[in-house]
Amino acid sequence: MKITLFTTNNIRHDYFVNTLSKIADELFVVQENKKSLKENLNSKIMKDYFEEVNKAQLKFFGDLKVKNYSKNVKLLAIPFGELNNCSLQYLSNYLKSDVYIVFGSSYIKGELVDYLINKKTFNIHMGVSPYYRGTDCNFWALYDGNPHLVGATIHMLSKGLDSGSILYHAMSNIKTSPYEYTMSTVKSAFRSLTERIKDESLFKIKPIKQDKSKEIRYSKKDDFNQEVVKNYNKKKIDLNIMPDSNFYLKDPFYLDE
Predict the structure, then answer these.
(1) Residue 101 — φ and ψ, nearest 5°?
(2) Are 236 and 147 in contact (CB under 8 A)?
């Protein structure tokens, strides 16, 4: 089986590359390289927040680098945000797979998104759609007092942001801290998707359209700032709170370890 992954270069993304390489005959990775967050943090509040995020990331994913991967991984590294400037011809060696996955890349547009939609590409959205869409969704779910809506959505890639038909949700029972809880849902997405590709059950799931009337928050990058994090730090977050309403999760997968 040949798999193509569009992703970026953080620790958790490298871990996913390594995981997929174990089930693929050939894995083609188009990796957008982001600058370190440390270069963009100018306040103690933000530095402390992302230090906790990174601790959780290291706990679940270690510090693996792509250069250590097996020979079945073919890697194309490009600057973050340049993906849509790459022609299909330029990417042609990476567009001959059986399975296509998007996780953490920049917003894909133009001829590439048309090609990937036609190939029935799977997208991992870190947030529980249709309730939370946009960026930093699991942060906002906790901020809003909705820990039961911290998770990931595996859905079909579409032209709209996080709006494709849903295959299933990936959740976690690991609730040792807000940081580890949110990061463990990333691992839940990786594990479930890898297992379901390997046993081919993923291809038998019938996707359902998103009910946009259930949207709670559509967050943008600029919404996440120092004042918001400061308020977040003051909150007493009960990770085991039960929802008052009947929130719907599609065929949820729960990570227990």
Answers:
(1) -135, 140
(2) no
Helix, strand or coil, per DSSP, at residue 105: coil
**Radius of gyration for the chain, computed over Cα atoms and rounded to the nearest angstrom:** 18
DSSP β-ladder status, 152-156 and 166-172: antiparallel
For position 68, what pLDDT does the model report? 58
What are the residues whose beta carbons fall under 8 Å from the beta carbon of 195, sequence distance 6 or more?
none
Count Cβ atoms below 10 Å from residue 135 Cβ, excluding itself.
18
- Dihedrals φ, ψ of 70, to 5°? -75, 170
Answer for the pair 60, 19: CB distance below 8 angstroms, yes or no.
Answer: no
Closest Cα partner for 125 from 164, 181, 178?
Answer: 164
Task: Give me the residues of the chain with pLDDT under 50, please.
Answer: 39
User: How far, in Å, CA of 224 to CA of 92, rounded?
Assistant: 36
Joined together, the tokens standing for residue 124 give 């991992």
The token pair at 203 is 């291809």
pLDDT at 49: 94
Q: State the pTM of this model.
A: 0.93
Q: Report the relative pairing of strands 122-125 and 152-156 from DSSP bridges.
A: antiparallel
Apex 121 CA angle, 257 and 252, nearest 5: 35
> In the chain, count of helices (H) and strands (E)?
6, 10
Closest by alpha carbon to 146, among 241, 249, 250?
Answer: 241
φ/ψ (deg, to 5) at 198: -60, -45
Position 72 scores a pLDDT of 93
Structure tokens at 216: 């709670």
b/e sequence 77-107, b meaning 16+ C-beta within 10 Å: ebeeeebeebeeeebeebbebebbbbbbbbe
Q: What's the confidence (pLDDT) of residue 40?
A: 53
